[in-house]
Amino acid sequence: MSGIEPGAPAGLLRGALDGLVPYEPGKPVEEVQRELGLERVVKLASNEGPFGPFPAALAAIARAASELNRYPDGGCFRLRAALAEQHDVGLEEVAVCAGADAVIGCVCQASLDSGDEVVTGWPSFVTYVLDPLKLGAVPVRVPLRDDRFDLDALLDAITPRTKLVFVATPNNPTGTMTTRAELDAYFDRVPEHVLTVLDQAYFEYVDDPDYPDAIAEYAKRGRRVLVLRTFSKIFGLAGLRVGYGIGPAEVITAIGKVRRPFDVGTPAQEAALASLDDAAELARRRAVNREAMASLHTVLAAAGFAPAGPAVANFVFVEVGDAASLADALLREGVIVRPMAPFGAAGALRITAGTPDEIAVLGDALARIAGPQIESSQERALDRESP
């Protein structure tokens, strides 16, 4: 029995945390297998790429393993220098952290005081809301329009208290993008006192000509913007946690002040460096993902579902009615998907495009539960929408 005293002294914990619900990741595959007695479980819940690290990255990780008794380069100098060269920006304009979400946390710590406001579309990435709340700041959630960020409405929501505006393109969880024309118009109107955090975590998946490279088209042209990218998705390095932001030197310096000294481990830095120059593998994975997304749409259509769209990344957002019940039914069939209640969409699921075999497993699972389960789920959704 533990001898730890229950509770905490009055006033020890910050009041801003009182109503905060911690982020709850999904259960590991192994735990689901153990609990439900399943031989195989397919995880389509976390927007991970279905492939592992690039071959050169695996070799770099192996080389780094012998030096794990040493602390990593706290400044990520070689990786920052390589990213600066790739994007033709200054070293002082690049921040590398333990994932793009760590960059979000750092820019919030660097800029937000209690009572400050941030504006974001909703539903969107929960970190845009949780990190400001941790600091006593006020997240202003602006409803999406047709499952897409409504930039005009975001602009209308800005007040003198607004410091940050988060724009995710593609948006997580809906998978939809914001066009170049929409962003051009937004940047022409956004007030000078606001820093826009433009999250392009799924940048490498998108091949729509109307989708901008925000580093080249906004950051390098002097817009007040911090652009986020990550190695967690198409590069297959989600387990190592490495992402980056490119923006004004003053913002990058402030991020460096709040970032932990050894935030990104040596294997992560070396794997990211080794992944930068393999354009052929990037193109292959992009093409494979297009095929997977088409298969995923086909499987969902066969079950009577129509995902939001057009979805341009590696996942779909689909209204199913009773999302919690359908997710549980799929779980018992060995398929993990993500209910969207934490993202502000209690009736929806987010489903990642996996390998062809994984998508086939999803299709078979939907077919086995499709009848009464899906019909009941959809009927409950219609009942809630009725006047």
Offer a concise description of the structure.
This protein is an alpha/beta fold and 387 residues long. It contains 13 helices and 12 strands.
What does this structure look like?
- The chain is α/β, with parallel strands linked by helices.
- The chain has two domains: 133 residues, Alpha-Beta Complex (Aspartate Aminotransferase, domain 1); 221 residues, Type I PLP-dependent aspartate aminotransferase-like (Major domain) (Aspartate Aminotransferase, domain 2), CATH 3.40.640.10.
- Helix content is 41%, strand content 14%.
- The strands form three sheets. The chain has a seven-stranded mixed β-sheet with strand order 2-8-7-6-5-3-4, with helices on both faces. Strands 9-12-11 form a three-stranded antiparallel β-sheet. Strands 1-10 form a two-stranded parallel sheet.
- The longest helix is centred in the last third of the chain and has 30 residues.
* Largest sheet features: 7 strands, mixed
Query: What name goes with the CATH superfamily of the largest domain?
Result: Type I PLP-dependent aspartate aminotransferase-like (Major domain)
Rg, alpha carbons = 21 Å
- Tell the overall outline: globular
In spatial order, strands of the major sheet run: 2-8-7-6-5-3-4
Instruction: Report the mean per-residue pLDDT as an integer.
Output: 92
CATH architecture of the largest domain: 3-Layer(aba) Sandwich
Number of helices: 13
Give the total of beta strands.
12
Low-confidence stretches: none
Number of domains: 2
Distance between the termini: 54 Å
Order of helices and strands: HEHHEHEHEHEHEHEEHHHEHEEEH
